[in-house]
Amino acid sequence: MRLPIIRGVALSGAVALCAIGSLVLAGTAAADEDAAGTGFTSSVFARGGTTLSAVDDITSMQGSIFVAWQNGVGPKGEPATNGNTQSTIAQYSSTGHLVNSWQLTGRCDGMTADSRNDRIIATINEDGNSSLAVIKPDAPAASQLALYTYSPNPPVHGGGTDAPHIYRGQILISASNPSDTTQPAVYRATLSGTTATLTSVFTDDSSAIVANTNDPMFGKSVTLGLTDPDSNFVVPGSSPRFGGDFVLDSQGDQQQVYVRDAGRPGQQMYVLNLSQSVDDTVWATSSSGTLYATDGHSTVYAIHGQFEVGTAFSAVTPGNANNAPPTPGPNYLATLDLNTGVLTPVAGVAFPVKGLTFVGGGGDEGGDGGDGGRAGGE
Fold first, then answer.
1. pTM of the full structure
2. CA 74, CA 84: separation in Å to the nearest integer?
């Protein structure tokens, strides 16, 4: 196996302390407030209300922002305290105007844009009683929402399903909350009729090469023991490392698994041990884009500024680590060093961060990396 390329980056000043050149992004919860003179600003993009709460995942497609509001529904579809049993997928214009919405019975915890097929793919119930939904926003109203039952049902790992992403034409889905950690960590889903057939891409106990360049085990094979497959993503080709790979976050284990040629014969796997537990990780794919972040409660924020292409941003989740302290601090935004796994807080971002998506400006690689095909390989 060849190790992931570590591309050289010309750096200066304090930024040179980071092996891959992390950009320190700053923003505040106040609308249009300059963050400590850095040139970055943040503003409220959308708010919930009496019927929209517990905002979670976020993605983009064709100029719209799609947001999952869980509305208090439990991770196995348990009713909220007010009796509600449905999540809401809301479509917003680029200015935060609500365009459309769809109700999903259960809790939507994972969502991605399949831009090549003009559809949003969402998973329902991450801990059990799980299923899949597909939304086609531009279809006639009666045929916009399609629901799929998994086969096998329940999935063989014993839990639910979390983040989906499109990687080189494949729908890859995290196998969350496993009761058997010898079973799949990631599935490939094939849709036919009303059935989503699941096949294993790799398992929780697969072998992977240690990718941390500062670890004595760097370059050596280890056996994984994933207990919390959660978010996933497709790394854009502009990333200084792992460009074109599929990445799975095992949140509680403080690990990311990068997979080159995922789902294909000869796929190669690398594990990056992280200094903190994280949820979503996204990459800046253009210098003039916008980073959107949900706070897990009632608000979606937009962060603007001059980005450094290739910078990885993560939502750090101290309370979700397997070894979390009794009184963990709130979630926060950080830059991720792709060589060492060190997460550095982003100065000035005062709100807790959960879901992330980056929408590029002109000349970017597109959206949050959802369709995977545009990223290419190293």
1. 0.88
2. 10
